[in-house]
Protein 1
Amino acid sequence: MGTTTYSEGLLPYIPFYYVIWSDDLLSASEVQVVKKAFESDESLSDDDKTVLESWLDKDNPPKNGEIKKWQQLITESHATLIESEIYPLEIFSQKVAQYYGGDPKPNEQLQEIERNLGIQPNHYNHLFNVEVVHQPFSNHYDGFKIDILLNARFENELQVFRKFLEWPIFKWEIPRDKEEARSKVLEQLKVLSAHGWGALAYPKAYGGKENIESYASIFEHLMFVDGSLAVKFGVQFGLFGGSVHHLGSKRHHDLYLEDTGSGRLLGCFAMTETGHGSNVRGIKTTATYVHDDRVLVIHTPGKNDNKEYIGNALHATMATVFVQLIVAGKAIGVHAVLVPLRNDKHELLEGIHIDDNGHKLGLNGVDNGKIWFNQVKVPVENLLDRYGSIDPNGKYRSEIKNANKRFFTMLGTLVGGRICVAKGALAGSNMALTITAKYALKRRQFNDNIKIQEDLLIDYPSHQLRLIPKVASAYVYHIVLQRAMQDYAQSEHKDKRKIETQVAGLKATITHFSTVAIQECREACGGKGYLLENRIADLKNDTDIFTTFEGDNTVLLQLCAKGVLSDFKSELNSDGFVSVLKLLGTRISDRFATINPAYVSKVDSTHLYNHKFHLHALDFRLRRLTYTAAMRIRNYIKKGMPSYQAFLKVQTHLIELGRAYSEALAIKWYYDFVAKMDDGDYKELMYRLGALHGLSTIRENTSWYLEQGYFGSTKSKAVRQRVERLSTELRPHINALVEGFGIPDHLLTAPIAD
Amino acid sequence: MGTTTYSEGLLPYIPFYYVIWSDDLLSASEVQVVKKAFESDESLSDDDKTVLESWLDKDNPPKNGEIKKWQQLITESHATLIESEIYPLEIFSQKVAQYYGGDPKPNEQLQEIERNLGIQPNHYNHLFNVEVVHQPFSNHYDGFKIDILLNARFENELQVFRKFLEWPIFKWEIPRDKEEARSKVLEQLKVLSAHGWGALAYPKAYGGKENIESYASIFEHLMFVDGSLAVKFGVQFGLFGGSVHHLGSKRHHDLYLEDTGSGRLLGCFAMTETGHGSNVRGIKTTATYVHDDRVLVIHTPGKNDNKEYIGNALHATMATVFVQLIVAGKAIGVHAVLVPLRNDKHELLEGIHIDDNGHKLGLNGVDNGKIWFNQVKVPVENLLDRYGSIDPNGKYRSEIKNANKRFFTMLGTLVGGRICVAKGALAGSNMALTITAKYALKRRQFNDNIKIQEDLLIDYPSHQLRLIPKVASAYVYHIVLQRAMQDYAQSEHKDKRKIETQVAGLKATITHFSTVAIQECREACGGKGYLLENRIADLKNDTDIFTTFEGDNTVLLQLCAKGVLSDFKSELNSDGFVSVLKLLGTRISDRFATINPAYVSKVDSTHLYNHKFHLHALDFRLRRLTYTAAMRIRNYIKKGMPSYQAFLKVQTHLIELGRAYSEALAIKWYYDFVAKMDDGDYKELMYRLGALHGLSTIRENTSWYLEQGYFGSTKSKAVRQRVERLSTELRPHINALVEGFGIPDHLLTAPIAD
């Protein structure tokens, strides 16, 4: 038994105070937690309480000598720290106290502090020179339960589908000859469609379940099998089948939809041309209507006007071809036409030429190709005519008179695809994060001289910081994309403009996130991350193009920003004076926020972790960027600049606005979801993930917030510190969190994730 | 002829003023440029000058109505803007004036404004509603001359080598079966070595030229051929040959160096183990000295103790194996031993087992493998004994008594390799930037309604911003790595600690830069960037591991930071009081800078473009982060925390410090180089590139500078605007700049870069 001058009551508090002061843990609300705890601790004398209170003063903190004395007292106790205890620090403190003659008994007040301050073993186990019995991760949360919480809407279907993916044909393999990979993916596709998984989004009359949300969940899961399979699946059922479904009329559905869903008819979606990718309106392929024969003549006019990157081009027998429709010599604008490509023997039809696009960075299991048309005739009935048709007299008819509006309505069918692309990217980074976290929970490197075992990678602050905020963001984006798909599914017959703006921004933001996250994972796994066997390499290469296809991210962010600005404009114009007043009101309250010193410098953890702070900060950024972009454009135009040029002048501002809009939307939708959860541990966990994501997002834009005076430097630093703190607090739950992504074990084949 | 109320003298100034006010171009120094110009313009009346002066007042700018009038006046002139003129805006302005009855003659004052304000056609051609005769890029600078300026030290050798690379065997090909790729790379390696290119760094007595700088330049160029070739070349001649050269003694040189240089002896460098990568000191392979037989017994003790990722493992006949040396039962620490792997028939020798590491994300032309040793005996003479040997009595001898120092001295031989890795990464991103810039100079997408031709990608502000600052940084880093290699070459017999710190930071910073830059290039080229034929895919995958091998970036940044801190500590300790005073002086002057409002809010372009500002800002960051890291560690230690834990606590701070050190060093070395250039256009260009890199680097850390009060929000915004402005100013020279990277045309095989 050791000797000490501290009273028996104080002893168990000493390890707590040591942790607190070694780490500058204390914010005002945390001081309150500690104070409340010891004040209601009946084992303490009044003198003890006075001492404990005196040690809590941030303006007059305990001297270094005092803290060092605590450290020595702890070291000399030779108490063992057991991380697997429910309250490891409280138990440890009792042992320390016991060594100096204290009476060890559970102390609820200390447990209260431990819980409320979020003090985690990995947060302090380095601070003590004592034996530590490590527990790589906590079992407080159950990954399986998290998965169910996230996917409640499709849980049953998903369980069946995950089981289905145990079929040997879905087993992942390393060697990848391009041709072999394509054959395998084709075979996998056929198995999936033969079992009805391809037709999920189609009407019941054609073998489907009219459930695009389930379809999207299935698509997402295919990323765990192979990126090429997911993309080929998306081309066949989402793009080709989707174009028949959404741009065609009943005749087309009757002829093709069931065969498409069952995989008997393979199709491709020929929109992009070598010369025109982002600028779809500029495509050059023509479909000239010849009234005498009631045919459309499909033609590739120039050198760069061939279709390119067309998925399924080598396996498909039919294509939805986007063309400039010409009727009676007049260009009507972009339309889609079904064009047969091959006969029963899989030979190309006359006038059609298809080249392989060759080797790609990733997705080599997808047969992308280039397609040329040389005066190819198809019956006029092949025009997908939901939004525009040619009548028996050879006259063009459309219910949408405005050509511009018609174009965007047709392109609106791409929205579902964009949500899927973002979901696919996210599935890819979820898998990479899972593998990386599992590896970091067993890989050790370097140690203190006195230790035998080296430290786990995940216990390095830098490693926590590179992974855990990304896991939090992945949760937010998962919820957000589910909501987007739900809204999209319900928007079928409504004005799709709003969801288009939302999805354009979210697709760009989330695919970018995934690219960055997977890169981080590759590097965080070192050389092991570079080996194909560990899957990250493929995930990286396969998802890399997700930032480009179905809408280049830079273009989409501008599209999104323009949507925001046009809302802003119509808000301004809708009822003139009132909305200007509203705008002024907004500005005034913003200004209030920015000059209110209490807000600008509020650094308490209660405030920083509060979802209202995140919502406000992200919304403030959105509103301010909207307003300033609008004003800049207006000023340019006032000086006589044409509006195209004015928009070009503020291009980088618009891209920022697109990002800000997406981030504000994401956090709003996420917190909407969490608010509706049942109260309890899991809800709290989700709030903490939201806080980490929110603070990280704010942190990424810190310079902007500082420039705007939205917060000062003290708060800016506090945000940074809280991002690190929250990462540390969530570190024990990292295993449950990645298991919550719901990736079936049998698909997680990376040896380093074993 | 049109009519106008403006005087004849004012007319040619109007397009200039329109450009200036449409764009908020004016900083105080720029106002001076304009003022000086018109004041000395003899064609102007005093009234004209009064008007021109009144239009220059930032506090009372011309009304929008006035500016709009200018715009209409310009539009109605129907003057044609010809971008290929030497002074396009001045010539254009004369044409506008002529339309309204002006007398067109060259105006030197306007030329002065055009030159000094860096007004570029792409900067204003959008502002006018007139016909524009575009010139995709300017020929003001010559890429070939830039290349010579950069590589003056090896220009002759490089020209010969570039010609040499025209041999058909170096032709890049798409299909890449792993085995075929390895065979081809092996063959290429043998051709190179047969012609003496491998031995460049070795002593003349062994067929070399004792020129490691040339060697590094050659290595860099091999990246343009194939990343696998570069890496295999580096393993054979740099790592294996380098270990024989630097860790061995004359006996080893005589036996192996000539054969290594000529490629007759293929070797590998077996340091990393599955269980120990970054923590080299923890490797487990043993070499136990047996005195009776004068042999070392090489052994792999446990499951994860095999060597891994060893390049050349399948082709090599010998390996430099890093082991724990055990003499008379005592562990002496890490040493290197030459171990034969295979016999003349290329069969593995007894006790040696080698497995293929299999498919990797990139570099599949390199035969990486795992190696196990089962009690393999080699003569004691095989110990590379420059820093430690076993004498005839079986006693261990070393001139370096301190085991720690001995370890770091041996690892110091890795420094050259680290410079080469950074050079290779940079060569990779230079090639990607070249391809991307060339594509952006011909790819068009979207346009204004009134225009027939779509806009070039490079003319979009967002595209300029994603590429041009990276091109500028590439220039800075190229110069910096040349300097590092020069210093390293000259450090042969000196204390290498300083250059180690420098290279650790630079390797991490530059390989990270390259990874980010190549990713940006892939995305900036859209779908074309995803096709293997366009090379970016390979550059991306091949260089991806450069952030990991020869030292993981996260570990290296901490190594660098620790070097900085130990310098700081010895500076403090060296002569006690004086250095503390110096430190105080530093802090005081920093504080002065941060509170001097004139500096904090100085936004004039003369100041922002000045290299002294960049040097000061980056050095300020370095000094402040050094000081605060040191103080934080000291405070933790004062509270009784063991130093290992204290360092862990500030880990993310240390990583920032490592970055800050590297960036401050890079800009210093770059400006040192530029200062020594001959005066003239090219020197000015290099200063502008430095400014863009400097401002971009400051911009990346804006939030930190704002937090520190180093500058205020006005300056912060000005820095951002100047990054965009400089990118625009350099845009006409982008072709010359990427040609200045000196990549031979015959190696630039990407179709999109044609």
Note: The longest helix of chain B spans residues 461-490.
Protein 2
Amino acid sequence: MGRWEPDTRGRLERAAIELYLEQGFDQTTVAQITKHADLTTRTFFRHFADKCDVLFVGADELRERVAKTIAAAPPAWSAFKAAASGLNIAAAALQIRRDEAQDRRKLIRDTPELRERELIMFASVAETVAEALSERGVEDRAARVTAEAMLAALRVAFEYWGEHPDRELPQLVDETLDELKDVVGSGN
Amino acid sequence: MGRWEPDTRGRLERAAIELYLEQGFDQTTVAQITKHADLTTRTFFRHFADKCDVLFVGADELRERVAKTIAAAPPAWSAFKAAASGLNIAAAALQIRRDEAQDRRKLIRDTPELRERELIMFASVAETVAEALSERGVEDRAARVTAEAMLAALRVAFEYWGEHPDRELPQLVDETLDELKDVVGSGN
């Protein structure tokens, strides 16, 4: 991004979300977004692959932070605890940008195309977690199961956050992980 | 289906899978499938929404069986155990049609469009499991967490089955559920 384009990406994001919320995701075109942000369509496609992409653009960065957090967890920690620390970092990052994250959630929940995209995003986070655990020496299947169980908890906590926007996401994640321990522990 | 169309659906399924495996999913058209099955395109679309649909057409029926199994589990069983019994039924049904199920897995694994479709299918199974547990009186969040954890285990067992086609899926599901108990149990 050139110096003459301060926060172009952020402007496009805000314009897109505003229009999606106002008139619906399906009804909004890229041309309308760029007009609203006073930028060109070419600029839009320099930052985003399509109009879904605007809503998931932070995911790569978040995934990287999750991987780094898991890698940095004390070697003595269990796979579950190391993975949970990654999850907590993601939850904290989302909590900081709460209003924006909640707007996104609302849009995703109401739009089938975006829900599918979210499933793909979650699956890629699970892969990242599994890889990060493997690199800690966790056996392959245990790494995959832990990663998938973490994502299961994140999905549920996320949904709850959408329904109870005044709760704190990191706390909801902790509660959901406790719930997971309870239900799995009472398995027999 | 009329009496003059014995197993039309099965013929279309087999023709489709044969061509997908032979020449690739993306390269195969509905016209080729119907020609291969000696049927018309109109007949194809009476049975399937699109060429993805052929590979997921048993999912609704399986979901129904899972729901019924969970509903029929002894009232004293924990949410986890009831959900696991549903999962085991699904695994047994897939094991019976092993070769076909394995062909499908191969195709899904190698085709991004089908992987996305599979994620959607898994998400809908999770919803079914959560609903079936709610109807047993399991509290909402516990039901969702249990359902998502089950699907996490199913996903991993399924992947393993693809890599080790000679193993039995029901046993892989059991092993994965045990693994889940281990990793979650050693959470602290």
Note: The radius of gyration of chain B is 18 Å.
Protein 3
Amino acid sequence: MNTNFADTVILCIEIIGTIAFALSGAVIAAQRRMDIFGVLVLGVCTAVGGGCIRDIILGINPPNMFRNPIYALLAALASFLVFCVARSAPEIIITNRIQNMSLFNFLDAMGLGIFSVIGVNTAIDAGFADNAFLQIFVGVITGVGGGILRDMLAGEMPSVLKRDVYASASFVGAALYACCYQFINQWVGMFLSAATVVIIRLLAAKFYWNLPSAIPKDWMPRQD
Amino acid sequence: MNTNFADTVILCIEIIGTIAFALSGAVIAAQRRMDIFGVLVLGVCTAVGGGCIRDIILGINPPNMFRNPIYALLAALASFLVFCVARSAPEIIITNRIQNMSLFNFLDAMGLGIFSVIGVNTAIDAGFADNAFLQIFVGVITGVGGGILRDMLAGEMPSVLKRDVYASASFVGAALYACCYQFINQWVGMFLSAATVVIIRLLAAKFYWNLPSAIPKDWMPRQD
Amino acid sequence: MNTNFADTVILCIEIIGTIAFALSGAVIAAQRRMDIFGVLVLGVCTAVGGGCIRDIILGINPPNMFRNPIYALLAALASFLVFCVARSAPEIIITNRIQNMSLFNFLDAMGLGIFSVIGVNTAIDAGFADNAFLQIFVGVITGVGGGILRDMLAGEMPSVLKRDVYASASFVGAALYACCYQFINQWVGMFLSAATVVIIRLLAAKFYWNLPSAIPKDWMPRQD
């Protein structure tokens, strides 16, 4: 495959993922009745927060989001769009209509997939090619860190800790890529691993897969 | 203007801001019925947390608060004072009497202003003179990061995401300074930009300015 | 004392502390009805989160947990054990039976003690032998940072800010070691300081010591 073409495709998927992540943050901010500043902050944090935590762990100063402001700016634009929709048609935001769209789920899954493999790539490029544990960890952090930050800023328990197959899809993709990048072409590895994440996510969403809960939600201690 | 004199004035404003920020953190800790340790932690985190996040983003290790412990010590002293007041006269703390004082608002605004421009300065000194996006971002983080940390430690949604014109005042000051520091004398730029923040904050407090909310607080979905 | 023997003892205490911390995180995750991923994340974050924050402050990239994955793996194993217990006998988890065991309290106190002095040691080794403020600060962060992260991820106010003598025991041990490491043998200093933390913790647990609260829990403003 032509490298320039692969680079362009990856950039496009990154941009799609950035926007999808920003939308999910901005919608939660609007639902919490935040002001325009809060909507922008939650949108941008969700979109670039995972990469920011990754870069701090890897010692990349300043984090990459400050060298390519394009991602943060796109996220801010997408968040502003959510703000405008919320002002004119609040019921679209309140009723979770955006998050329930299958298109949104698809784009969000693409973001999760591409961010997970890019996280692994960043660890390799930062000189940690021999530390698969670190690569997988920062891969998952790149994928789900923004969502964790979003929920903590919104004053909630991070949904990724209790909700369906999301972080585990990221984990499978990051682990797959960390294991196979040495043996096959980098671009093929990235696309295969990211596609694996997307497929797991979409299957999980379609068939309501959930990881087993430690204690079922409706379990109550016996009254003796 | 004499440089030494300007340095002294900035140091004084920094100390005033540190104490005002520590007071706001310690009061919230006391209201949450924390113990003496919690009051000190919230006071110190509010006062120096913004600068600490800034230094981690910029790769300044260890963060500046550890090289000049004077700020953390002053913040701890101010927090201890709040603790003593809470022990002897809890109603002063519970009824928000401190935060409602116009003197407190004035000192807090001075802190917000000076921290925002110092954040921009720190980014420039750390070698990022050509990255206005980074400068403005860490300027705002220096100004409001401590308050965000305070609210997250207190288990609340950060008030800066939904409350009146606070972060946006910091943004205007940081952006003004980041834009003009190349063209005018550094001290003049710092004082002008910090003063802009103070004026916006005081006007916002006096006239109850608020940024537009994404969805009004009393908006309810129609029952059809 | 033989250095190798001392090293081995410290490693054993570290492993015990890691497991005890992981248990406390995993139990809280199970109580919040998180899934297997959430249980593992909270367990691992509680066990290695304090050291991770310390390394980010000290500029150690990547944090030590990624160079010796053994700690994170042990924490994950202990968390998985909690998950299995929660699946088969939820009442053990829900009723706080693990945290109420004196054995658990003892192991947790050992972890708090050893992590606090190891934090001081890490700061010294990172080149900050002349900054006692930084040493004590990162000592306490290493001891209690994981628990703070655990509570923030669980959507709660960090218990360390309001609960009995925990962070203050860590503070006494870190300060003792930071003051005396120059004058006495390193291993003697570490064991004495860590033992001080354990003794303070156990006495505090036995006699229900509490730091004074800023405002008593049952204090209500007078209705006039």
Note: Chain B has a mean pLDDT of 90.
Protein 4
Amino acid sequence: MNNVTITIDAMGGDYGVAVTVPAALSILKKYANVRLVLVGDEKQIKSQLGFLRRNNKRLSIHHASQQVTMDELPSKALRTKKDSSMRVAIDLVKSGEAQACVSAGNTGALMVISRFVLRTLSGVDRPAIVTIFPTVNSSKDVRMLDLGANINSCADHLYQFAVMGSVLTSALDDIETPKVGLLNIGEEEIKGNDLVKHAAQLLSESKHINYIGYVEGDDVFKGIADVVVCDGFVGNVALKVIEGTMQLIAFYIKQGFKKNWYSRIAAITAYPVLNDLKKKLDPGRYNGASLLGLQGIVIKSHGGANTPSFANAIKEAILEVEKNVPQRIGEQVGIMLEEAEF
Amino acid sequence: MNNVTITIDAMGGDYGVAVTVPAALSILKKYANVRLVLVGDEKQIKSQLGFLRRNNKRLSIHHASQQVTMDELPSKALRTKKDSSMRVAIDLVKSGEAQACVSAGNTGALMVISRFVLRTLSGVDRPAIVTIFPTVNSSKDVRMLDLGANINSCADHLYQFAVMGSVLTSALDDIETPKVGLLNIGEEEIKGNDLVKHAAQLLSESKHINYIGYVEGDDVFKGIADVVVCDGFVGNVALKVIEGTMQLIAFYIKQGFKKNWYSRIAAITAYPVLNDLKKKLDPGRYNGASLLGLQGIVIKSHGGANTPSFANAIKEAILEVEKNVPQRIGEQVGIMLEEAEF
């Protein structure tokens, strides 16, 4: 395997260096071909490394004096935070010193800065956020996009999301022609708003997309589609509602097993199963959303990610570097969009 | 308690009379003040009653020769199905022979026909679909609207949904000033699309709405808001995604407990807890969405509802009749909208 260098926005997320530094160390232990650059306040990073009493030759520190806060206006972050850990981590991808960047920081700022610094691939109007979900078909996952990068998409954008999602799935999962579904509120032709109706037309006319038609919210997890496409507002609501539902059910399970002495004993017996379930319901297991459509790899981790979960986001970055995702998307988007006469 | 008469679209839903007839009988057994009118094919209804070998004096049959199919175009159903079980069931509410109607049929058709026959309350532009969800605060539920009646809402509509949702919650749950949240993709003022930003302005200026600001998808189940307001496209996706996530987790639980001999034994020990959980995750427990804003009560049951679940939808109708919901909404909407200078 070739050497892979990835920059880490060490200050991003709810826990900053307390999570990003140990996650980086754990990755270096597992991947001998990976180099990581921790970007952020040198003092804080060094102090965290000292606290952990660990270090690694393939780990370097790149000092950045500023930090993008979680509630900062993205345009303001772009204008005023030119030496922020997030910005510098992306700059290093642009300059070729690294092949990917991972951040758990402010999603809007990450999107705006990435787009400004790295630019979109030729033929891509807007980048999209994509992540993977499990399905009831254990051998099959589903990717959904856009999850919040674009809040007023037009049909052409949804078409581009379909192209990018297909190429990503094809590259990472070795599926030749991934099945693409369009998120709608009904399976029948008669339902849906103008946006999805128009996008459905574009997708069904395309020779390059294996378009399977509309899918509803509850179809996402059925494994009938490999890629589900939607506007970013709808996708982000769906993403958060999935998290909320999982938290609600986890609460029910806990409450149920704590109810009385009998259920407490049952909980002990059922511990291995419950522990397995807990792992499956952990959103961190699937942590690491890609900002797709850029001339470079940017992975967004959940802001509240813990160490193993942030490490998963770094793994996603390594995988996309090794599979050469942006180049493949660039080539395919070029071919598909050209033939679709855009 | 006063007498309550409710019409049942006996042919609606995936199972028609096989579910609607036994559900009606179970309700009559529990509610001595309720009369039910089964509307639909007399032969089929009688045959089902004969099959069950049961009847009830407070149960009557109103023959209707047509049926609205699940995939029928709503406008076509309105035009051509004037003697359908759905249409006649609503007509009987309009004529005053019944105070509410329950149907598990085609949602779009039910909405279009209800609106045409019953008309909206003065001050309400569009009816909305509302239902109730549990939260992690066991003493608190949350109502969410619109869940699919309107796919291109404007800010005024979202404001009206907030008013209607508040009044309904106030009437049914005795909460004086229900907390209203607006579904968005970020908690901060900087996020969201133009629709939610404009609606947020209207809501925060209102003296009559206890507006608590933006809520994200994962906040819905936290019990921080009593009412969550959104556009129908987004709301319907959220509703279906909740169902899909619950199905996925139910699948995981089953799979986990069937894995090996140990987990199978654990499943036996944990049976009471798992059974309780199964009941809690059953979407039928909360079956019965209201079509709010009409001059009459119309309750939509899930199309795939089983007998106890369809009975829950009838219970919701009874409750709304007893609490005089449409009149209360009409009064409050009138006052609030007038003072808001609409």
Note: Chain B has a mean pLDDT of 89.
